[in-house]
Here is the input.
Amino acid sequence: MLTNYLKIAFRSLLKNRAYSFLNIFGLTIGITCSFLIYLYVQDELTFDSQHTKADRIFRVACEYSLPNNGGTEKWAVMSDWVPQYFVKDYPEVLKAVRFRKSQNVVVERPEGVERFYEEVVYADSAVFSVFDFPLLKGDSRTALNEPFAVVISEHIAQKYFGSTDPMGKVLSLPDFNTQLTVKGILAPIPHNSHLKFHVLASFETLRATNRTSENNWWNFSTYVYLETQKGTDPEDLENKIKRISAKYILDQEESSGYRQEYYLMPLKDIHLKSSFRAEFAPGGNINNVRIFALIGLFILLIACINFMNLATARSVKRAKEVGVRKVVGAYKKHLIVQFLNESVVLSFLAMVLSVALILLALPLLNDFTNKQLVFNPLSDPGPAVILLGITMLVGLLAGSYPALVLSSFKPVETLKGSFQNSSKGAMLRKFLVVFQFVISIALIISTYVVFNQLQYMRQLELGFQKERMIYLPTRFGQGTAEKFAVLRDELKQTAAVKGTALSSNVPGVELGNNVVRLGWDNNAEWSDMRFLAVDYDFIDLYGLKMAAGRGFDRSFPSDETEGFILNESGVKRLGFDSPQAALGKPLRWQNRQGRVIGVVRDFYFMSVQQEVEPFIMVMLTDRTPGYLSVNVATDGFGQVVNEIEARFNEIMPDRIFEYYFLDQDFDEQYKAEANFSRIFTVFSFVAIWIACMGLYGLASYTAEQKMKEIGVRKVLGATVAGIVALLSGAFLKLVVIAFVLASPLAYFAMDNWLAGFAERISIGAIAFIISLAFALLITLLTISYQSIRAARANPIKSLRYE
Here is the structure.
């Protein structure tokens, strides 16, 4: 019986090649896109799930309140002194593991001449018992027990030691006068882990080199993860540890006005749901994942509806076939099985093509998302099983309605040629088209909003000069300040350089914070503010605008120790009525006493996704600069960089030359949004295109059903334009209905999405007007061929039996 059904299915497909091609092509695209989205969503949702104890591991985050209505700050890091009390005071906590990142550390072999910048992560020895980070070589139980021990990845082993066995070899950190002995080789860490490292040193190394926070609860530099007992209630434990600082440093909190609160975050939630300051790695966005999951579902539904409409369009042609089969003894259930079988066969043919498309499209998707998604049914059959499930679901879901409709035809009517579909069937088909276009129009509106928000962010005036700006990190080293000052002054004499400046930070690098007092008295009111230390040329180099007063000026030597500059947000934070009102007011910052000499206009020191924070600007003076900024006068960056490198190597021959372009760094901040926009746009247009195929099917069906009516109208004098308008009008009404339904849904969804941006566009009427016009246009283009073809048909052919 099954063999017979398969024969009939293939004969039907071969007999109707155009119909089969449209159906298979539509299902192929639908299955391919929905499966690619599944791979992406599954990868995002399974971050950090490779650890056996993942459900019992929590990261501790700290939220501290700033005094004098300064708000709160949420940090992913905390003091390395605190975790011991979690283990000591709460039996639910079995172990605490600390991580501290040290970026751009100079690493070299003692006997080698090559040196590189590496990110060194320090961790407690319990890291290997809490997390699943297997070692290819070495003993994970003892590898990080002692100071100056390190485990490295295969990449680092090859980089520094080549084919030599690295076990027991030494890596030198000259900036810290430290030598680390290799105790193990790390196995590759899965790409969907937020904890990634190539150089993992023992936390005891920090203690041995006096770089830990002894009795200090305020040095926020360490990531802390807790392994809890089985059955521990996270909310209960969180309530217990929330105010642990009150138990040990309440006097410090009361005297300073700061207040700490600790929170737990499940390990598997960190990637998508954590957005604290100083995250270990850039995270994802749970809302974007949900949006993609919905788009994947919508594409699958639209593909199924598309199949239904195309199948229904052929119902008139297959009516007599159904009548003959019923006359010769076929039961309704046999016909249902036959038509479902045809649908499933189509789905499986589409799946075969989908596998090829998936393999071709995966590299592109990985480039877009910066992921390492893999589809290999032989090594990992799980996704292949999901693909089979999707295929069966599509086949049964898409074929169910046509199977029920076709099997219900009455043989007397179909064989007499008086067959007509019911009004209920017509209403259902219209409903399906409206449903398709509700989704499509909502996606069109959303695509327009996402694109315009990204353009707005990129074109927003940041308030400073970032084009043609190169910056060099100063890093560590004795005499750094003096040597970079010499380099700065020498580069000023270069014709291709417009200007240079030294500063503690550059735009895009998070500022430190400290206390600013409203007066010179130790008891004066104060507030916590960000600070930026600069030289005389920084303000002019970056083109900052003054709202009041002046910038730092060499004509006023006292500026170096007594001059302060606020931004406009800083003026508000300190309670001044206006920038002018702040001028001349006495302030105290750290051990400096001085007055406000100027106010700069607010500018986006960080991303436009964050609100402008209040800060105070001071002179570098005795502080070591963090960065040298160079404004290039020409587009010939290559030649200028070579000249900068030559000067750098002359002054600091023992240092590694590195440089970055400020505008590229800022563009990187929008990379996630840009990727989201591209992927969203591609899959949205795929959904729209599949919906148009369904519309094409319904147009074909309608034209076929109305052939006699069109013939009568033409005999009575109707024009081609009039008939095209008649046929098109019904579909355009459906699109307008869909637009009315889709608009509020799209507005609500996009308004929620935009709420995550500090600077956002408003969703104006233009988004809806353009979307409606585009929807009407693609509708007309889709149905025009069938409408014109039906209108130009010879009425004699349609009326010859009347």
Observations:
- The mean pLDDT is 85.
- The chain has 27 helices and 22 strands.
